[in-house]
Amino acid sequence: MYDPTVARLTYRALLGRRRALILGALPLLLIVISVIVRALVGADDQTASDLLGGLALATMVPIIGVIAGTGAIGPEIDDGSVVYLLSKPLKRPTIIFTKLIVAIAVTMVFSALPTLIAGFILNGNGQQIAVAYTVAALVSSIAYAALFLLLGTVSRHAVVFGLVYALVWEALFGSLVAGARTLSVQQWSLAVAHKVAGGDLVTSDVGLPTATVLLVVVTVLATWYAGQKLRSLTLAGEE
Amino acid sequence: MTTLQIDHVSRWFGNVVAVNDITMTIGPGVTGLLGPNGAGKSTLINMMGGFLAPSTGTVTLDGQQVWRNEAIYRHIGIVPEREAMYDFLTGREFVVANAELHGLGAKAAQQALATVEMEYAQDRKISTYSKGMRQRVKMASALVHDPSLLLLDEPFNGMDPRQRMQLMDLLRRMGDEGRTVLFSSHILEEVEQLAWHIEVVVAGRHAASGDFRKIRRLMTDRPHRYLVRSSDDRALAAALIADPSTSGIEVDLAEGALRIQAVDFGRFTALLPKVARDHGIRLLTVSPSDESLESVFSYLVAA
């Protein structure tokens, strides 16, 4: 199911180009803001939770997910170099699964790790807030990577659609329409975070059982479907 | 023996028919797929390589379906027309990756690089390669698993004459070894120099198939049209029409020229200057009026 060569090619494509700069910029911004907030406000649990929830989980994780998820396959399909993977006796689901693992790992490293560091800077992990949001970032990394990898497989405009989902649906729509929150990766991961932190600082609109089921279903379905789409991927000629 | 069978294959994109009911058999040796730009060659090659589903019909390799059959790639090597190829890798890294994806190691990769004579630049990044070098590294990646069928889409595009000759030698060798090699081209001379057998595709249809010499003869024997201006058009016309190599002459008053249709190309080109000299006529313009590839192809379709 996992091919080390596909993984190596994907890592190098993801981390080698300008994408790496964008991947690094957001976490850096989060940490810089955390240092400033800590210096101005001091260690405050509510502030830490607001910043980690609003900036890290609601904005940074999905954007990193979009870049890593779509970037793991989209550019190869766009420029046609995916032909070198497809013209091999490799099961298509193996290609997708391997790219998913890479996308998850990259999203986790560039989103969960900075979240943890920012959490410790903000309030030294008081009330388990840093750990709770880090767990949420880890969990949502998986679902985002799967969703955006699928998007990268089926659409040439994956980055745009991905950003629209991440910023409009998750952030804006979710805060206006209650129902939209049930269908939000962010809320599902918050349900897991709530379990870790306890208390009322980290809350979710979705119960933990529902959140867990939805997370698993979305990840598995998206991965399966991406594998199917890759099996019948059509490479258009130059004509 | 590897035989690629294309059986009543059509492919359309929306309302546009790119490939129209083509049946052909590609056997061992070098086959040229010839046709003008936009004739459907790439569409056809994409279907042969399993990257595009035929709308109707089937493509099989020794009886096995090509579309949605990953295992078939153990036998197929593909050199795509598109340039993109993991430019951030070195040539060696790229070919090694291709070998690994076939379950092979660095040794197979090294052999393939040696075959295409790219060892000298194997440690440079692909992004620094010239067009010809890229083409050769693509070849190495296609050869790494010693495939019995090699598909190449416009492999000579943008190559300089020396690189072209090297690649031709290599493909000829592959054909001599008994591999089935198919390459597409829109340039007659390329196909003529390399292919033993050609398939001609025009406007999505299969226009001709067979030995290139036969088809080449069809091409050179076709009626040629010339526009000729001289110091005495009518005298020249009278002298030329007496010879069987000329089948018709029109005096174009508006252009102030003769429109000549020649049926025997070789004989006519020798006759024209001789007749002019014998009659003391000066030739001012001699230009072929239908040398475009499209006219050659449309003649072939009609034949």
Automatic annotation (TrEMBL), chain A:
Specify whether 4Fe-4S is a keyword of the entry.
no
Q: Give the keywords, sorted.
A: Membrane, Transmembrane, Transmembrane helix
Q: Which Pfam families match?
A: ABC2_membrane_2
This entry's Gene Ontology molecular function terms read: ABC-type transporter activity
Q: Organism's domain of life?
A: Bacteria
Which residue ranges traverse the bilayer?
20-41, 53-74, 95-122, 128-151, 158-180, 206-226
The name on file for this protein is: ABC-2 type transport system permease protein
Recorded GO cellular component terms are: plasma membrane
